[in-house]
Design goal:
The chain is an all-alpha fold and 500 residues long. Helix content is 72%, strand content 0%. It contains 29 helices and no strands. The protein is elongated, with a radius of gyration of 33 Å. The relative contact order is 0.04.
Length: 500
C-alpha cells in the first residue's frame, strides 16, 4: 500500500509516503531485502514525479547502507537492460525514461555503498552502462543522471578507480559530446576528467595518452555505420578535439575513419561534418610538433584518398557544399605547412586538375578558397614543380576569374597572378611562348580600366611584375588599348616604367 501511495495524484500524500518509506528502510535495515525488487521499482517510478527526487535519493542511499551491492546489482542491471522479471517486467518495459530513473537511483545506491563492497560489482555495472542502448539516446535528461553516476563512482572509488579508468573515461567523453549547451555543463565535464586523473595521480593529458588508442580502436569497428547524428560520431569528434598532441599516437586509426566516412557513398551531411573536423585538426596540428609531424606523414594520403575524390564535380547544391568543405580542409592543410615540395610532386597532377575545376565552381566561397590554395601551391612548389608548361595550363582559368562577381575573389586572383609571374624562369623563351604572353597581357589590360579602383591598383601591380618578362610586348598592347580606357593613368605609368 505504501509503495502504491508513492504514485498517487495528491502531492501531500506522495511526500508523506516517501518520508515514511525512508523511515521504514532506516529501521528495517536488512529486513527490506525480501521486498527489494518492488522497492526499487517504486523508486524508479517515483523519480519521475516532481518534488520527490531529493527524498528518493535519501531512500536509495539508506537502502545501500544495509543491502550489499551484490544483492541490489542484479535488479538494477536488469531494469537498465530492459530485462526485468515477474511483476516488474509487465509494468516497466524499455524506455529512455526508465533508464533515466534507474540511473538516478543507481547513483544514490553507489553513493551510499562502501568502497570495498562496491568493487566486485563495478565491472558489471560499467559494462551495462557503457552499452549503446543505455548511453546513446536523444533523451537529454538521461545524460544528467549518467553524469551523477560517474561522479558517484569517482567519489566512492577514489584511488581504486585505476582498474576501471578506461570505461569511465569513455563515459565522460560521451557526456562531453552531449553536454555543451551551458558553461556549467562544460565545467562539470572538466571537473570529472580532473578528478579521474587526480585519483590516479596523473595529468588529464596522460588520460588521453592511456585511453585514446583504445577508444579509437573500438570506434574503428563501428564507424562504417555512422550518420551525421550518430552518437559515436560526436564522441569521435570530441575525443580528437580534446586529445591535442595525443593525436600523433593514434593517427593510423584516425586516418582510416576519416577516409571511410568521407567516401562518395556516404551521407553528404556526414562527409561535411568530417571535413569540418578534419580542417580543425589540421589547423591546430602545428601547435604540437608531434601531431604536425604525423599529419605531415599522412598529407599525401589525405589529399589523394580524402580530399581529391570530394573535389570532383557533381551536380546539386549538396555536392557543392561537400566540395566547399573539402577545399577548406585542403586550405587548412596547406596553411599549416604540412605538405612539403616533395610531397606536392606526388599529388600535383591530380590535385591541380581539381583545383582548376573548382575555380569555376558555382559557390563563391569555394572559388575563393580554391584561389587561395592555388596561390599557396604555386609558392610552395616554386619553379621546381611549376615550369612553363604547367603554368600555361592554368592561366586561362585565372583570367576568367578576373570577371568574377566577387571583388574579394578578383583581388585574390591578382595576388595569385603575382606569384604566377614570379615563377617564370629567366631562360623563358619569349618568342616561342609569344602567344601565351600576348593572351596574358591582353587579359590583364582589360581590367586596368575596371570600375573598381582597388582592382585597377591590384592589376597594375601584377603588370609591374609581368612586364619585366617582355616589356616590348606589353608596351605594344598598352598602346593598342590605351585610347579605349576611361583614364590613361595606369597605362601612362606602365609606359613610363617600361619605355625607359
Amino acid at each position: 500500500g505504501l509503495l502504491n501511495d508513492l504514485n498517487t495524484w495528491v502531492d501531500e500524500t506522495r511526500m508523506k509516503s516517501v518520508r515514511l518509506l525512508y523511515s521504514l528502510l532506516l529501521y528495517s535495515e536488512t529486513s527490506s531485502t525480501q521486498h527489494l525488487e518492488k522497492i526499487l521499482y517504486a523508486l524508479y517510478k517515483s523519480c519521475m514525479e516532481p518534488g520527490l527526487s531529493s527524498e528518493i535519493d535519501k531512500c536509495s542511499q539508506t537502502l545501500a547502507q544495509f543491502i550489499t551491492p551484490v544483492t541490489w546489482k542484479p535488479f538494477v542491471l536488469s531494469a537498465l537492460a530492459g530485462a526485468s522479471s515477474g511483476e516488474v517486467k509487465s509494468r516497466v518495459g524499455v524506455s529512455p525514461q526508465l533508464c533515466t530513473s534507474c540511473l538516478r537511483v543507481l547513483s544514490s545506491l553507489i553513493s551510499g555503498s562502501q568502497t570495498d563492497l562496491l568493487l566486485p560489482v563495478i565491472p558489471d555495472l560499467l559494462d551495462t552502462i557503457c552499452k549503446p542502448e543505455v548511453n546513446e539516446t536523444s533523451h537529454r535528461p538521461l545524460y544528467g543522471e549518467l553524469a551523477a553516476v560517474v561522479r558517484a563512482l569517482l567519489n566512492v572509488l577514489g584511488k581504486s578507480v585505476s582498474e576501471f579508468s578506461c570505461q569511465i573515461f569513455f563515459l565522460i567523453l560521451r557526456l562531453s559530446s552531449v553536454m555543451r549547451d551551458s558553461e556549467e555543463e562544460r565545467e562539470e565535464v572538466e571537473k570529472m576528467l580532473s578528478l579521474l586523473a587526480s585519483n590516479q595521480d596523473i595529468s588529464v593529458e596522460e588520460l588521453y595518452v592511456r585511453h585514446a588508442p583504445t577508444l579509437v580502436e573500438q570506434l574503428n569497428g563501428l564507424h562504417k555505420e555512422w550518420t551525421r547524428h550518430s552518437p559515436d560520431h560526436s564522441l569521435f569528434g570530441e575525443l580528437l578535439l580534446r586529445a591535442g598532441k595525443t593525436c600523433a599516437t593514434i593517427m593510423p586509426g584516425i586516418y582510416s575513419i576519416f577516409r571511410d566516412c568521407t567516401s562518395k557513398e556516404k551521407d553528404p551531411e556526414l562527409r561535411m561534418s568530417m571535413f569540418t573536423l578534419l580542417g580543425r585538426l589540421l589547423r591546430e596540428a602545428p601547435v604540437t610538433s608531434d601531431a604536425a609531424q604525423q599529419f605531415s606523414v599522412y598529407s599525401v594520403e589525405i589529399i589523394k584518398e580524402i580530399i581529391i575524390p570530394n573535389l570532383e564535380w557533381r551536380a546539386g547544391r549538396t555536392a557543392g557544399s561537400v566540395r566547399c568543405a573539402a577545399i577548406s580542409s585542403l586550405w587548412a592543410l596547406l596553411k599549416s605547412d604540412l605538405l612539403s615540395a616533395d610531397q606536392l610532386k606526388q599529388v600535383q597532377t591530380e590535385l591541380m586538375a581539381q583545383i582548376v575545376s573548382c575555380l569555376d565552381d558555382d559557390n563563391c566561397a569555394t572559388r575563393l578558397v580554391t584561389c587561395n590554395c592555388f596561390n599557396f601551391l604555386l609558392k610552395a612548389g616554386g619553379k621546381e614543380c611549376f615550369g612553363p608548361d604547367e603554368l600555361h595550363n592554368v592561366y586561362t582559368e585565372l583570367l576568367k576569374r578576373l570577371d568574377d562577381s566577387s571583388d574579394e575573389l578578383r583581388i585574390a586572383v591578382t595576388t595569385t597572378f603575382s606569384t604566377f609571374f614570379s615563377l617564370i624562369p629567366e631562360n623563358y623563351d619569349k618568342e616561342f611562348y609569344k602567344a601565351h604572353l600576348q593572351a596574358l597581357y591582353r587579359g590583364l589590360l582589360i581590367h586596368l580600366d575596371d570600375l573598381s579602383t582597388a582592382i585597377q591598383e591590384a592589376v597594375y601591380k601584377v603588370l609591374e611584375t609581368a612586364g619585366k618578362i617582355h616589356p616590348q610586348y606589353l608596351c605594344e598592347h598598352i598602346e593598342n588599348v590605351k585610347h579605349k580606357h576611361r583614364s590613361s593613368l595606369y597605362c601612362d605609368k606602365l609606359l613610363a616604367l617600361f619605355k625607359q
